[in-house]
Amino acid sequence: MLLRNLYLIIVLVALFIVPSSNARDFSLQVLPHAKNPMFEMSSVAKKSSYYTFVHSTIGRKIQALASSSKPGSTNESELAAGHGVSVKLSQNNYNIHVNFPNQATGGRSYGWTSGQVGDWSDKMYLDHLASIVTEKNSKDLGEFYELLIQMLGACNSDDKSLSIESLAENTQRVANNFLAIYTAEEYRAMVPEPHRNWDDALLEVTMLGAFHGGQSKFTKFYLRKFSTQSKEQGSGVYAKTQPGPMASKARGKNAEINDYWQFSANPTSKQSGINITRVDFEKMGEAITKYEKTVAHNRTMEKIQAVVGGDKTNLIKSISQFFTTGKSNDLSKIDELARNVSEFLLSIHDDADKITAWENKGEK
Questions:
Q1: Please, what's the b/e burial string for 90-127 (b: 16 or more CB within 10 A of its CB; e: otherwise)?
Q2: pLDDT tens-digit map of 138-161
């Protein structure tokens, strides 16, 4: 009887989880959490910022379960068993956070969209982001960015005027997994000996995706140089302002949006993330801001800056840190802010080749 029950369990798990060609992207057609999600975004929509929701509710629940976290090899089975902290974003979109300890490393955050599960590294997230920002459907792209601001500013992911469900399915997945990764990084900023600013890095680079998606020739700052070229990522290759000790051995490649993800400069370290490239993505944000302000005379920027404050030399940074530092408490301003941020990001998407040529000529 014991062997028969064990066999049935194995069969059920096999039916639930069907690996795709990528081990970090798989199918889970039946989501146990869907029957009884721990939290629903709709319960706090238009009542709370996402920062407050995480720090007062979601993050506290993850922390309360930290003592029962298990080795990373059990993450997918824990997901299939219905364990962890789940957040319903809409009928077909859920975030689930499993096996997080009360420290800044460990745990997994999944985005589930209509049976497809993302367990995305930063690099995978950026690759998926690249696939949607280069689409020609500007309405979908504009709604994607408006939705991100609505989710972060007012926990609003699903209402009659704007819903994650109305986006193309691949865009839904990026929005869903963005919030899953973002939540993990916010949690890691709450724990003892925290990792801070990784949530900010994710949001800044996500907004820069609008610019890069509009470029005819992908060009970005790499080690502070505006270039169409970079190096294959690896430990010790990238050292913020100069090549790392292993850079000479790394193969060159065409620049990509995933270059914003790098390994530590320490050749023996396996730590990696988007925050490591802060010097480059902030320099990119500064260049875009200066062009839109002094050349394009983009009036939408003034409306955004009036709400978010912060660094006037880098509007993208100011928008991001408005949400990651808990300043977004006036919910009455979020609807207009979301529309204005979306409009601004579509502007830099449309102006991308002009900005690229201007930066290449050094007209700063």
A1: bebbbbbbbbbbbebebbbbbbbbeebbbbbebbbbbe
A2: 889 999 999 999 999 999 999 999
The total number of structural domains in the chain stands at 2
To the question of pTM greater than 0.85 for the whole model, the response is yes
Assess whether 218 and 192 both reside in one domain: no
Residue 315 lies in a domain: yes
The one-letter amino acid at 35:
K
- Quote the domain boundaries for residue 247: 211-361
- Are 138 and 225 in the same domain? no
Q: Are 104 and 194 in contact (CB under 8 A)?
A: yes
Q: Is the Cβ–Cβ distance between 324 and 199 less than 8 Å?
A: yes
Residue 360's nearest CA partner among 220, 222, 213, 209 is 220
Q: Are residues 306 and 222 in the same domain?
A: yes
Residue 153 in contact with residue 331, Cβ under 8 Å? yes
For residue 247, the 8-state DSSP code is G
97 in helix, strand or coil?
strand
Q: Does residue 190 sit in the same domain as residue 216?
A: no
